[in-house]
Design a protein that fits this description.
The protein is α/β, with parallel strands linked by helices. It has one domain. It has helices at 63-68, 206-210, 248-252, 286-297, 319-329, and strands at 9-15, 18-24, 75-77, 85-90, 96-101, 115-118, 137-142, 147-152, 168-169, 171-173, 220-224, 235-239, 261-263, 266-268, 300-305, 310-312, 337-338, 349-350.
């Protein structure tokens, strides 16, 4: 495999309330689907589970559908921003830093720090003066040791990354790129998202969108509104595999999470024979068509709360590409539906406000159960693209 070290050209600009750092980031290894960094997680992961011909799509009258249709398109947030997922690779020649604990909201676990790891100085992340307003999720892959470092609320604590920077974060996780990327039981959290999935689970990668003709052969992850102050309410208090948990406020605050969409639920474009649109007839660009085909064949998992329906992506997106994909989603968003049988009915766990994470009392079921491969059963609409 050809190794290609490049530097990212950073563009710095000042925003009201803080400093924005952005970059066009190029991968250190020629992208291909045979590399675990570019094609993470094993074939038993929900990340690689295609839709099956037995999938049952929710009706227009379903409460979850009604919640979904309160919006008309989705957003995409890139990994260079405060709410996306930056995905970077470090090399032996990159400087060694010690990442210390810091959290503006007193979150995370100080016991996970300090963390010594190599960080590329080309790695950038938008941060804001009001630091509690950003998630700052960041993944760094140390290829030499095959180690993943996932940080939340990562901050260089300097306008520009230099050898003198003193980085901090509120959480540090490590997980196996060759594992499933999600837990198997309630509370079995791998990453820092509300649902507990690893940060790279379902992340839309810039290289796969830009590579003409390349199928986006994995699931995507999405955030949905869950608070009264959001412009609509979508998320409820229900957990489906591969999610193992909810946002903290979903357990504690009665006015939050009064919608009907479960964490971990699966959303997809139905095929034409089940009422979906003919994607080729929607006038989509080549890139937008491949994204829509991914949503039809591999689907979207709901993993976290957010201000609006938003796909999470890595940093390899410029403003023009983001705008193209966002605007194109308005042509098919209204057709996307919940896959009702993505997990068994007795694996759908319901909570009430005030329940402890380990003690759901909203329904008769107390433990999540994995769904079939392919999702919904039957014949898969697309292949499982895992390396093994």
């Amino acid at each position: 495999m050809m190794i290609r070290r490049v530097s990212a050209q950073a563009v710095f600009c000042i925003l009201a309330g803080g400093i924005m750092l952005s970059a066009i980031a190029l991968p250190a290894v020629e992208p291909n689907s045979g590399d675990w960094f570019y094609n993470p997680f094993n074939r038993d992961s929900a990340h690689h589970r295609p839709i099956g011909t037995g999938a049952r799509y929710a009706a227009d009258s379903h409460p979850a559908t009604q919640d979904w249709l309160m919006k008309g398109q989705f957003n995409i947030t890139p990994g260079s921003g405060p709410w996306g997922c930056g995905i970077w690779e470090s090399a032996p020649e990159d400087p060694l830093f010690t990442v210390a604990y810091a959290s503006p909201r007193n979150e995370g676990d100080p016991g996970e720090f300090p963390v010594a790891c190599r960080l590329p100085l080309s790695m950038v992340k938008k941060t804001y003066a009001v630091a509690e307003q950003f998630d700052g999720v960041l993944v760094v892959y140390d290829r030499a040791s095959e180690t993943i470092h996932q940080f939340r609320q990562f901050n260089w604590n300097s306008p520009e990354a230099t050898l003198e920077s003193r980085p901090t974060a509120s959480s540090h996780k490590t997980w196996d790129l060759k594992g499933p990327g999600h837990g198997a039981k309630l509370g079995d959290r791998i990453g820092t998202s509300a649902s507990g999935v690893a940060a790279m689970f379902g992340i839309l990668r810039g290289w796969e969108v830009r590579k003409t003709g390349h199928p986006i052969g994995h699931a995507l992850q999405m955030t949905l509104p869950r608070k009264p102050e959001n412009n609509c309410m979508m998320l409820g208090r229900e957990v489906w595999w591969p999610a193992v948990s909810m946002d903290g406020g979903a357990y504690k605050i009665a006015s939050n999470n009064t919608g009907h969409i479960p964490y971990g639920s699966l959303w997809a474009l139905p095929p034409v024979e089940k009422g979906g649109p003919d994607l080729a007839a929607l006038g989509l660009s080549e890139k937008a068509l491949r994204l829509a085909e991914c949503i039809r064949d591999y689907r979207i998992y709901i993993v976290d709360g957010g201000g609006q329906p938003t796909l999470r992506a890595d940093q390899d997106f410029d403003a023009e590409l983001l705008r193209e994909l966002r605007e194109s989603s308005a042509k098919y968003y209204r057709y996307i539906r919940l896959v009702e049988n993505s997990v068994p009915d007795n694996g759908k766990v319901k909570y009430k406000a005030g329940d402890a994470p380990a003690a759901p009392s909203g329904g008769e079921h107390r433990q999540i159960l994995p769904g079939e491969f392919p999702a919904g059963g039957g014949t898969p609409l697309a292949p499982n693209t895992a390396i093994r």
